[in-house]
Amino acid sequence: MTIKEIAKISGVSIATVSRVINNDESFRVSEKTREKIMKNIKKYGYIKRNIGTNINRFKVGIIKLFETEIEYKNTYYSMFYLTLENRLKEEKIKYEIFFKKKLNNPKTLEELKFLDAIIIVGETSDKFLLSLLKYNTNILCLDNDIKIDSVDSISFDYKLSVKKVIDYLIKQGHSNIALITGKYDKKDFRAKYFEEITKKRKNLKRTILKVGEFKKESGYLLTKELLKNKKNIPTAIFCGNDNIASGVYNAIYESGRKIPDDISVIGFNDNKISKFLNPPLTTISINIDNIIDIGIKLLKEKIYNKRTFTCKVLVQTDLIIRKSIKKL
Q: Which SUPFAM superfamilies does this chain map to (predicted)?
């Protein structure tokens, strides 16, 4: 029998069987589970196959945190998933897509046990990840700087990326800055670090935080609201993503103001539309290709080479300077 078949009979994940077979001392498993696995191996036999010639037998699960409609509106994540799926196909790694909302079904959760790994893209709670670890111990988080020791993660330095934006705006002479962002399950990291960093910048006169959704309509409505207070109009608006920035542009122009002459705008994510806005949008670029390439490498190390230690990787972000920021 193969390791996958032993895992299925034993009611555990493939990773669990692998670690028991390889006497992984860093892996905690109950003696009862260990005995059950070894009993099944003895009873049915276990054939170790040559990984180099049987890579097509591996399969991973991609857990999508958002519904298709939300993903469609947030081009960053739609591009992320498309790139990820294409890379898995190139590596001949089979995959199956699961939606977070459907994981309350016990039968669906049981299916996770028989995957070689689980990939999650985007920010999610520790509570959700800990619940998944009960079904599969091989989890890879992309675009999420997760702190759980046993979970591999590849992301970017959240705090440093926000600091880059604030320091650049201050350098350009802006002292009245607003952040318009969104949130999913928890407070957006941009909001968290915006508040933390701006408190320490004594040369800032005023900061404003508006939280809605990560979409164009939200950026438009929150900017309209922001511009109603004529005594407190910011000289620069930092947007949680480039979709929000697109809505901010519309609201500013609708008010009779110009970008960047009257209000400067800076985005986040550098999606495909940002360089075609008028004027082209200054933004933070996250290298999706690098995150996914490193993720695939870590995935293969875990699946093919049985790596037992955890990896945490932070990828550099870049400030893409275009024409939406005015120097005061």
A: lambda repressor-like DNA-binding domains, Periplasmic binding protein-like I
